[in-house]
């Protein structure tokens, strides 16, 4: 339905959101391979909660329910949250996190397009602050549990084996505690956690690196289909890599390599799916470069010098606050004018 | 008494303090203690009552001397009066409810700088009679106490599933059993967000919204029904 070579129809929101969900699929597939089918239950719980809370909020606000609930934005928020929480977290955690993300961070601020903060990251931060113990309980990659066992554990908390037998710290967690206790990383990377599995590829920092790689692939496809701009992810990855690279060169025993930082935690998911949120981020091209770069710096600072193992959520929330300010000072020059636009 | 203050005026002052110009959810004044000390009912109500007492006496004292205070010097003089009263409350609480005194800590001396106290001295007591000012101070304080109590109950309930926790600080060790466990104690329930400062902000936001919703509903009902005889006289 293109009317002229220069006038294209804007992509409908529903299509954008569908493509974002599609781009997450490779990541989810690898996730299932690494951590088992539990994540699918979490995704389902998150989706159902998100749609329910979204419908309830729309009804309370006297909005038409159908056009808003089918735009898919709530499902994107739900999936991002499910992918950020521990895969074997009890069922009420993902339900509560999603309800807070949609109800508090999205609808109380005025719904889609009005939310100052990335809803998924608000939900994550609330969980991180309120339930630090549960949020750090990750199962070891490829723990022998089976889909039925995972399902039972998520809903009842009962497990055939003690949870400690299958639990494992995440790579970021391990690095943090090792440095705190021994002052250096040393022989840490010989541990089995840091092997990338039978699939080879010795340069990946851990099994989780494969998930990150799949997110990267999905993200590149999103860029190729013009859903996300290049500035934010490139600036984020560049600043995170540069900062970690310089410090790694200075003292490799204390600071891990850029590859470790890029392929651990939520870095890749964040780079392409979280910080590219068009609502809570800046809209100007230069602003996106600044925004992405500063998130990279904050993620690194929080990971290495802060109290939390990963910093993507908090870094994104802080920079969400700064987004309007960045926008105001990066307005592009209007074509034909000499100075900047007022 | 009837000559000094008539019942319509008194009613308007009370309504203003408790609802229409509520310090906590309409004027949004004195946020610092409201946000910090509303983590349970006992803390909130105790601080609220201490503030009410200070406001009652400071309102009357400021009104009593209002004709002798030079306009240019009124703020330091008001603050001196308030500070002296707060010191008395501070010492009294230290003597009789020491446990609570330790919990409330710096927030008792800080009543001096609580802007709601100075705001009422400046906006009301310096322009009205002694009885009116005392009444205004007391009910402004009680309005704030109400907000602190509701906010404290919300945060306590959501945050740790209890009501009236640490009541023993007020009534001694035998009051320990008065604490209500809405969620059984052995469930180990805890939702830290409600106990932390963000919980206070979110809770206060809900209270402000709830007050507006009630007002709006009352307005709609008044519009639907024939208007009642106007008895409310404007004050302040």
Automatic annotation (TrEMBL), chain A:
Enzyme Commission no: 7.-.-.-
Coarse class of the primary localization is membrane
Task: Give the membrane topology, semicolon-separated if more than one.
Answer: Multi-pass membrane protein
Cofactor names: FMN
Q: Which residues carry this modification: FMN phosphoryl threonine?
A: 170
Q: Which UniProt keywords apply?
A: Cell inner membrane, Cell membrane, Electron transport, Flavoprotein, FMN, Membrane, Phosphoprotein, Translocase, Transmembrane, Transmembrane helix, Transport
Query: What superkingdom does the record give?
Result: Bacteria
The listed locations are: Cell inner membrane
Bilayer-crossing residues are: 20-53, 116-135, 203-223, 230-249, 255-276, 288-306
Enzyme class name? translocase
| Key word Protease present | no
Q: Which InterPro entries match?
A: NqrB/RnfD, RnfD_bac
Complexes and interactors: The complex is composed of six subunits: RnfA, RnfB, RnfC, RnfD, RnfE and RnfG.
Role: Part of a membrane-bound complex that couples electron transfer with translocation of ions across the membrane.
Q: Which PANTHER family match?
A: ELECTRON TRANSPORT COMPLEX PROTEIN RNFD, ION-TRANSLOCATING OXIDOREDUCTASE COMPLEX SUBUNIT D
Family annotation (NCBIfam families): rnfD (TIGR01946)
The record's similarity note reads: Belongs to the NqrB/RnfD family.
Q: What is this protein called?
A: Ion-translocating oxidoreductase complex subunit D
UniProt source species: Jeongeupia chitinilytica
From TrEMBL, chain B:
The entry's keywords: Cell inner membrane, Cell membrane, Electron transport, Membrane, Translocase, Transmembrane, Transmembrane helix, Transport
The record's listing under InterPro entries reads: NqrDE/RnfAE, RnfE
Q: Name one Pfam family in it.
A: Rnf-Nqr
Q: Which residues cross the membrane?
A: 41-65, 77-96, 102-121, 133-154, 191-214
EC numbers: 7.-.-.-
Where would you say this protein principally sits, based on its record?
membrane
Q: How does it sit in the membrane?
A: Multi-pass membrane protein
Q: Where in the cell is it found?
A: Cell inner membrane; Endomembrane system
Q: How does it assemble?
A: The complex is composed of six subunits: RnfA, RnfB, RnfC, RnfD, RnfE and RnfG.
Q: What does this protein do?
A: Part of a membrane-bound complex that couples electron transfer with translocation of ions across the membrane.
**Protein family according to the UniProt entry:** Belongs to the NqrDE/RnfAE family.
PANTHER family the record matches: ELECTRON TRANSPORT COMPLEX PROTEIN RNFE (PTHR30586), ION-TRANSLOCATING OXIDOREDUCTASE COMPLEX SUBUNIT E (PTHR30586:SF0)
Question: Protein name, please?
Answer: Ion-translocating oxidoreductase complex subunit E
């Amino acid at each position: 339905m293109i009317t002229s070579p220069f006038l294209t129809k804007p992509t409908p929101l529903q299509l954008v959101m569908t493509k974002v969900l599609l781009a997450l699929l490779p990541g989810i597939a690898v996730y299932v391979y690494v951590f088992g089918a539990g994540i699918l239950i979490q995704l389902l719980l998150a989706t159902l909660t998100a749609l329910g809370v979204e419908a309830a909020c729309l009804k309370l606000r006297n909005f038409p329910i159908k056009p808003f609930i089918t735009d898919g934005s709530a499902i994107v928020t739900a999936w991002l949250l499910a992918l950020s929480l521990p895969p074997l977290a009890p069922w009420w955690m993902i339900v509560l996190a999603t309800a807070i993300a949609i109800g508090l961070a999205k609808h109380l601020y005025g719904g889609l397009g009005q939310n100052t903060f990335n809803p998924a990251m608000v939900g994550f931060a609330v969980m991180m602050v309120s339930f630090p113990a549960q949020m750090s309980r990750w199962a070891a990659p490829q723990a022998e549990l089976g889909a039925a066992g995972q399902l039972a554990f998520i809903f009842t908390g009962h497990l055939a084996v003690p949870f400690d037998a299958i639990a494992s710290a995440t790579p970021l967690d391990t690095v943090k505690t090792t440095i705190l206790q021994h002052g250096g990383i040393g022989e840490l990377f010989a541990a089995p956690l840091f092997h990338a599995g039978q699939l080879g590829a010795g340069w990946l920092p851990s099994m989780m690196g494969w998930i990150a790689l799949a997110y990267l692939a999905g993200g590149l496809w999103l860029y190729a289909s013009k859903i996300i701009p290049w500035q934010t992810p490139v600036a984020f990855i560049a600043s995170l890599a540069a900062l970690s690279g310089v410090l790694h060169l200075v003292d490799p025993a204390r600071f891990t390599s850029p590859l470790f930082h890029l392929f651990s935690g939520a870095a890749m998911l964040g780079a392409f799916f979280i910080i590219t949120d068009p609502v809570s981020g800046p809209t100007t091209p230069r602003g996106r470069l600044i925004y992405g770069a500063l998130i990279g710096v904050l993620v690194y600072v929080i990971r290495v010098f802060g109290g939390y193992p990963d910093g993507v959520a908090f870094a994104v929330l802080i920079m969400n606050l700064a987004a309007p300010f960045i926008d105001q000072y990066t307005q592009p020059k209007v074509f034909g004018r000499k100075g900047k636009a007022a | 008494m009837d000559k000094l203050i008539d019942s319509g005026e008194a009613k308007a002052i009370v309504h203003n303090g408790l609802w229409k110009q509520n310090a906590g959810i309409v004027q949004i004044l004195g946020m610092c203690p409201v946000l910090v000390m509303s983590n349970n009912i006992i803390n909130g109500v105790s601080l609220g009552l201490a503030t009410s007492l200070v406001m009652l006496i400071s309102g009357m004292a400021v009104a009593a001397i209002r004709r002798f205070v030079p306009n240019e010097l009124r703020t330091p003089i008001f603050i001196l009066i308030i500070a002296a009263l707060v010191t008395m409350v501070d010492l009294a609480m230290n003597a009789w409810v020491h446990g609570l005194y330790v919990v409330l800590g710096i927030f008792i001396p800080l009543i001096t700088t609580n802007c709601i106290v100075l705001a009422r001295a400046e906006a009301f007591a310096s322009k009205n009679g002694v009885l009116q000012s005392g009444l205004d101070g007391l009910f402004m304080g009680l309005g704030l106490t109400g907000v602190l109590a509701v906010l404290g109950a919300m945060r306590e309930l959501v945050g740790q599933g209890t009501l009236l926790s640490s009541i023993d600080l007020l009534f001694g060790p035998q009051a320990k059993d008065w604490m209500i466990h809405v969620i059984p104690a052995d469930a180990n329930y805890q939702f830290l967000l409600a106990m932390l400062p963000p919980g206070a902000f979110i809770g206060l936001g809900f209270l402000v919204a709830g007050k507006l919703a009630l007002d709006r509903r009352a307005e709609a009902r008044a519009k639907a029904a024939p208007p009642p005889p106007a008895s409310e006289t404007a004050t302040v």
